[in-house]
Amino acid sequence: QVQLVESGGGLVQAGASLRLSCAASGRTFSSYAMGWFRQALGKEREFVATISRNGGATYYADSVQGRFTIARDNAKNMVYLQMNSLKPEDTAVYYCAARYMIVIRTAAEVSYWGQGTQVTVSS
User: What pLDDT is recorded for position 118?
Assistant: First the structure.
């Protein structure tokens, strides 16, 4: 069982930066690939980024490539999403996700979800 708690969301202007954090419970954090998804109002949940168990591999959605960076600290059971050059279309609830062993590409692959944190980008 893995419990995930996100933090760091908020209201910012376009062009600003935010860093989301996700705290994970459990002693086997390093056994899980981690990811971030987001869901805008009225839309389906979509993949944002994923990171492998040791942090050696990362993958991003085309829409955030070059602006967002996912990272993890296995010693602290934490995963982060650094978001730069934010755009109004980045407005969504952002969810932390975990999957045993294998990187995440779709919501169907996720084993555990956090409760979400709201990010709002004004123009």
Answer: 98
